[in-house]
């Protein structure tokens, strides 16, 4: 998976409340409750992507919590709460399809070793200055955007697409917020993973 290779190398969203019933998951079945036994299983790629995104959103949440503790900037606390809602939405999909949850309950602990290494690197970078912390946030959101777009292209499942589209919208907002904070310090924002044209388009929406 492209996102995993990358990671190895370097505002309001609703929480899904029950299986098949959610703004993220796209509503209920005609009976009002979908039977998991009748669900077609996800492909190996879809399942791997879903599990990876769950931990990737946890990485974002955990980094932002650490940056809030270090710098006290409200943006980190606010976006960490949003990332928790992202995590909850993905967990509901894992439950719906009977997939194990890879996300540890412990802050800063990841089953994916590439994410564990990245978390450590981002924490170190973000400790240097509040500007570096904002840049870390920008990088996380840029990669999330790319990964979510790839995930949407990968599947034709309506429930997965709906969740991923909602998370993508949230990541757009998060990126705009971090860029705004960076520019408030008199520093222009330079794209870190997406093309500059794509970042500029997102900021201009």
Quick overview of this protein structure:
65% of the residues lie in helices and 0% in strands.
Order of helices and strands: HHHHHHH
Q: What is the mean pLDDT?
A: 87
Total individual domains? 1
Poorly predicted segments: 9-35
CATH superfamily: Ferritin, core subunit, four-helix bundle
Tell me the strand percentage band. Answer: under 5%
Topology:
Blueprint: H1 2-9, H2 44-71, H3 74-96, H4 113-126, H5 130-154, H6 158-184, H7 196-204
Helix pairs in contact: 1-4, 2-3, 2-4, 2-5, 3-6, 4-5, 5-6
What do you see in this structure?
This protein has helices at residues 2-9, 44-71, 74-96, 113-126, 130-154, 158-184, 196-204. By secondary structure, it is mainly alpha-helical. The chain has a single domain (44-204), classed as Ferritin, CATH 1.20.1260.
